[in-house]
Amino acid sequence: MVPIIKRLINEGLKVWIYSGDFDSVCSITATRFSVNDLNLTVTTKWRPWYTPDSEVGGYVQQYKEGFTFASVRAAGHLVPTIQPKRSLVLLYAFLKNMLPPADISN
């Protein structure tokens, strides 16, 4: 998938990949290694993001080329099924072209 993702990024598409941190099918560690293989420039370092009820929803890192990688806390392989509220925060951020909130006041 790395070459396909790289091609999409090179075409100027905004690409987000997210991973549940309890995913035993596609581990977050393996996904991070794949993201590193893209050789993209980090613009926002790995940091927590929050839900409207002040919980850490996961972590996120953004890259210069329009790529974003996010984790979803306490989610397995089917993130929207297991953590629907956290998934909605990510979807909203993606549609608004912004990162999910960096602190509980956002």
UniProtKB/TrEMBL annotation:
<keyword id="KW-1015">Disulfide bond</keyword>
<dbReference type="GO" id="GO:0006508">
    <property type="term" value="P:proteolysis"/>
</dbReference>
<keyword id="KW-0732">Signal</keyword>
<dbReference type="GO" id="GO:0004185">
    <property type="term" value="F:serine-type carboxypeptidase activity"/>
</dbReference>
<dbReference type="Pfam" id="PF00450">
    <property type="entry name" value="Peptidase_S10"/>
</dbReference>
<dbReference type="InterPro" id="IPR029058">
    <property type="entry name" value="AB_hydrolase_fold"/>
</dbReference>
<keyword id="KW-0378">Hydrolase</keyword>
<keyword id="KW-0121">Carboxypeptidase</keyword>
<protein>
    <recommendedName>
        <fullName>Serine carboxypeptidase-like 34</fullName>
    </recommendedName>
</protein>
<keyword id="KW-0645">Protease</keyword>
<comment type="similarity">
    <text>Belongs to the peptidase S10 family.</text>
</comment>
<dbReference type="InterPro" id="IPR001563">
    <property type="entry name" value="Peptidase_S10"/>
</dbReference>
<keyword id="KW-0325">Glycoprotein</keyword>
